[in-house]
Amino acid sequence: MFSNFKDVYTNRQYAKEARQKFLAYFADNFPPVKSLKCKIDPHNHRIIASAKFCKRRLYARGYSLQKCFNHFVNEYEQKVLVAY
Q: Can you tell which superkingdom this protein's organism belongs to (predicted)?
């Protein structure tokens, strides 16, 4: 899904496109998750994602989009799928 990470922090257009891919993927594949936000922080070189599902909050962060994606999927499985 995310093939090249080296330009995320240096190229604004690439970062914007990567962020949009991340948000679109979760909107399509995880429909019950609401208010998904993704922030790419160039100062700390981190990607931070957060979302809501009913009263539960999902939160993930990582130094690459792939790690952030994996953490977010784990949060989804632990907090959303276990509850239902």
A: Bacteria
pLDDT digits 0-9 by tens, 39-81: 877 777 788 888 888 888 888 888 877 888 888 889 888 888 8
The verdict on residue 45 lying in a domain is: yes
User: Which residues in 1-84 belong to E strands, given as ranges?
Assistant: 34-41, 46-53, 56-62
pTM for the predicted model, two decimal places: 0.69
Domain of 40, CATH number, reads 3.30.160
Token duo for residue 67: 């790690």
10 has pLDDT over 70: no
Whole-number Å distance between alpha carbons of 69 and 25: 10
Q: What are the angstrom distances between the C-alpha of 66 and each of 26, 50, 53, 81, 82?
A: 13, 15, 22, 21, 23
